[in-house]
Amino acid sequence: MRIAALSEATGLPVATLKYYLREGLLHPGTATARNQAAYDDGHVRRARLVRALLELGNLQLADIKRVLAAVDDDTVPLHDAFGVAQDAMVPPRDRDTSAYARALGDVDVFVRRNRLHVRPDAQVRGMLADALVAMRSGGWDLDLAEFDARMPAIVAQAIAELGSLPPDDRAAQMEASVIGTISYEVAIAALRRLALEHASWRRFGR
Amino acid sequence: MRIAALSEATGLPVATLKYYLREGLLHPGTATARNQAAYDDGHVRRARLVRALLELGNLQLADIKRVLAAVDDDTVPLHDAFGVAQDAMVPPRDRDTSAYARALGDVDVFVRRNRLHVRPDAQVRGMLADALVAMRSGGWDLDLAEFDARMPAIVAQAIAELGSLPPDDRAAQMEASVIGTISYEVAIAALRRLALEHASWRRFGR
């Protein structure tokens, strides 16, 4: 398909697609004439993935490129590639405070207690610790043990999600898994915000 | 306190605090001598809020300024100010596709069916629609009705959260509510990612 059809298929303006191509976020099409190229379903899927990472994930270009590299490197076993993609989805950040060290310790205890198989250096541990530090700094003294009872349901949901990945090629599996990770968590966050607005109306708005 | 003590209290480097001051994200301290100013607890709280919005929320400076304006404008009733802050936490975005229109319609039906009191033009509706569009583009055909059963628990949690806001001044309530909104959703997202890594290990890693 031409770039106009790619735009139609993805809902992305041609200018945005050209930006993705220029930044190397989308691989070049097959040249068919001077200034003309043909794109395929792989481009459609990739453009959707980049859009989700940029717009929903708010990731920086450098982090998106790390995710895409993990998606594309099929010399790495699938489970390891998921780990690389998951790590790339956590923005790097300076963290060297004692509050962070304490929170990270709490996360490690939580992971062990819930028997989760998560790499010791998985970046998501830092992501959870960052959230804990922010909560505590805002006066919310959250104890991760409050989540213990909910973890079995969250794990069951995650297993079902991976079980419904498309059975075709590896890139499609990786892409669907990354889009699923990011878009599902934005959906959950939005549901929480709907509930918060409703709760604010009940408490302060009547 | 001097800026060094503010840095100690917030865990933020002095250079970062000076950046916040320069960008108007933090109000100036009281001048005590040439090139010296005194800061108070209000600065500590504000610096923590800005950090959460920047680092956890990944918000742009312009959006953070809109959140801060809602926090500070005490001529607006509290419930309305929450709404303004909530709207500012959803990044503006171009959305004019038919997929988006369909998703937004689904969100509106969901809100009505669950009897949620949410403003018709609340930006969070668009946030949920964006997540739906991304999921569907990635091959996940989510039906929002799947969340109906979970909404009562999410609403109960939101009511408990607002009920535990600090009872002191309005700015402190607004700040705690914004930090709570953002950090809690990052925590939930991180728990989901821990579960996904565990699920990937079970499915692909053994």
Lay out the secondary structure.
Two copies of one chain form a homodimer.
Chain A: H1 3-10, H2 14-22, E1 30-33, E2 36-38, H3 41-56, H4 61-72, H5 78-88, H6 98-113, H7 123-137, H8 151-163, H9 170-205
Helix pairs in contact in A: 3-9, 4-5, 5-9, 6-7
Structure notes:
The structure is a homodimer of 206-residue chains. In chain A, helix 4 packs antiparallel against helix 5. The first copy, chain A, has a domain at 1-84 and 165-206: Multidrug-efflux Transporter Regulator, Chain: A, Domain 2, CATH 1.10.1660. Chain A is built from 9 helices and 2 strands. The mean pLDDT of chain A is 90. In chain A, a hairpin with a 2-residue loop joins strand 1 and strand 2 (36-38). With 206 residues, chain A is mainly alpha-helical. The termini of chain A are far apart. The first copy, chain A, is globular and about 60 Å long. Chain A has a two-stranded antiparallel sheet. Chain A is 66% helix and 3% strand. At the A-B interface, helix 3, helix 5, helix 6, helix 7 and helix 8 of A face helix 3, helix 5, helix 6, helix 7 and helix 8 of B.
